[in-house]
Predict the 3D structure of the following.
Amino acid sequence: MNTPSRPASPVLPPAHDVGAGSTVQYVVDTLTMRIVSQEYGTDERLPSERALAQELGVARNTVREALDLLETRGMIRRRAGSGSFVTYDPEGESEALSPVAAETGPLQLQVVRSMLEPEMVRLAIIHMSPRQIEALGATLSDMEAEHTDAVAFMRLEEEFHRQIAAGTGNPLLIACYNLVIDTCRQAFRTAMYRRHLTPRRIEARQNTYNALFNAIAARDIAEASEFMKLALIEDQKFLLQED
């Protein structure tokens, strides 16, 4: 009897799925980031459609459509009566990095972020639903609970920013920012976080993100833009290893 071979690690296609509504795309992006960051590991069963719908503040049919797209992309496999299981292999992550992301240096990345993120948070404040703000607060809570694992904190930072991008409701901006996140996942950045993101620095960044979230929740565009710029300055100092 032949044992079925394990599927090869998929190379992720462009983050935006043509024809997907913005809410479906939000769910796709959320689950994609969780899978790629190994919050949901290979062969692990995802939460039920009902649980995901409640957590993300969307309808179950929206979750179902998003899972269909993830299965098409080769990231999950759906088994009748059993649920959805992750098939993405993190060993293939380096292959998924786009050529543009691979060629972009750390300071070039910061230039693009400084152009995108202040405007991104402004649009998000205008368009984010209360449920999306609530989900952003949940991510912040996870960030505040992480004190020592630098890479885990980095993944939560990415998720926080991705949720802000999704909150704009702009598919092109969301796709552009997914490329930014892809670039952030370069090996140099992960290695740097492991070496230099100390508990003291994590705490400082937590304080900045807490203030940023409060401004977003208050729909204060000017305040949120300033805290977003402050987060960028702190990240640039970190990259340059300045105190």
Residues 1-20 have pLDDT under 50 and may be disordered. The two ends are 62 Å apart (CA to CA). The chain has two domains: 22-92, 97-240. Residues 168 and 215 are 16 Å apart (CA to CA).
